[in-house]
Amino acid sequence: MSGAGPGGPEEADEARRAQRRRFAEEARAERPDLVLLCLLIAAEGDPALDEAGMDAVQIALDELAGQLPFAPEGGPAAWARNVGELLGRRLGFGGTPADYRRLESSLLHEVVRRRRGLPILLSVVWTEVARRAGAPVYGVALPGHFVVGFGDPHGTHVLADPFAGGRLLSDADAAELVAGAGAALTAPMLLPADPLEIVARILHNIRAWAQARPEHGPVGLWAVELALLLPSHPARLRHDHAQLLVNCGRFLEGAAELEEYARVVEAVDPATAETVRGRAAEVRALLN
User: Which of 19, 165, 199, 238 is the most buried (most CB within 10 A)?
Assistant: First the structure.
């Protein structure tokens, strides 16, 4: 566990509000700090993660970067092999299907501590450690499986799979991963992922984890609420937010959110707006 965290309920609520303000501000920064955003997500999932705990993760990433050789000969492939040797083979960072069943696999501080996680969180570790060491590195948001690229995404580059301990991927390997998600590999899929795209995908994974476990509705709720703080998000997310509020017994807030969603979609889909307003009225009736 991390530090002691806030004391009473009021202090905890204020700490959460402050963290969310910080998350929203960082998401709108000119160059968003991916690690900080991931740690602020983690703090929602683990209220014991305080500022000292976040600093400890940053220090751990710096220390890992310090163990990599500087400017290795051999270009992108050498960088990929060196990072894989350190993180995958020596330190055991990687994943298994069982990691998909754990919320900790989406919380950066736990991934750094346990050295286990989902492909996207392991890729954050890979890219941040390599970047600190001076590597030309970036995340690659393949459909269904996040990986890491080294080199020039428009020229000479190699791909590595942190979930598999840093295994280097051929074009055929990448195509096979994408095919597993029911898609065909295209050139745009291999371009660097934007930090906010990565954050949105992490939050989507957390929502999917919670949706499969109704007893964890509050987890899905905070994941949606963070996603709504990103500069852009699908309008449908408001409807999902409303439903989660209702599921958690917060009927008044859920009805208000349904009405707001109806207002947003009315110009393009009046029939849906009317249906949603009817649902909002039903939810308000639950208060009687």
Answer: 199
